[in-house]
Amino acid sequence: MADVEQPLDADLFANCRGDRPLIRIGGRWTGRILRCLRDGPRRFSELVPPLVGVTPKVLTESLRAMQRDGLVQRTDHGGMPPRVEYELTPLGRSLLAPMAVCCTWTEQHLTDIRDAREAYE
């Protein structure tokens, strides 16, 4: 193990303090929702099939959190039945490129990660 000459700065995470993370890009559904919305607006019912395992309640909570963080815009077109669409904002779109890098890294190292997990258990 290497010798550490400098202690960690006590303010290392000063800009990250608070009861909630600044944005929720690490959440279970956020990245998947971003990917579902990358090609344009989608209705709630269109988001459910590819998000296998998400409940309507959790999807609603995730979309609201992403809307609050400025990643998603909700548009209510009114009418009967009500027609609501969700789409990425420019801020949300700016996450697509870094997310693609993470997806590529995961694809390249998935076997290594699985092997490490199996060895650990």
Write a structural description.
The chain has a single domain, classed as Orthogonal Bundle (Arc Repressor Mutant, subunit A), CATH 1.10.10. Helices cover 45% and strands 10% of the residues. It contains 5 helices and 3 strands, in the order αβααββαα. The chain has helices spanning 30-37, 44-47, 56-68, 90-93, 96-120; strands at 42-43, 72-76, 84-88. The protein has a 3-stranded antiparallel beta sheet. The two termini are 24 Å apart. The model has no long low-confidence stretch (mean pLDDT 87).
Label this structure with key terms.
single chain, 121 residues, mainly alpha, Arc Repressor Mutant, subunit A, 3-stranded antiparallel β-sheet, 3 strands, 45% helix, 10% strand
Largest sheet: 3 strands, antiparallel
| Rounded radius of gyration (Å) | 19 Å
- Total count of domains: 1
Order of strands, main sheet, comes to 1-3-2
Mean pLDDT: 87
Topology, element by element:
Layout: H1 30-37, E1 42-43, H2 44-47, H3 56-68, E2 72-76, E3 84-88, H4 90-93, H5 96-120
Antiparallel strand pairs: 1-3, 2-3
Entry summary:
The chain has 121 residues and is mainly alpha-helical. It is built from 5 helices and 3 strands, in the order αβααββαα.
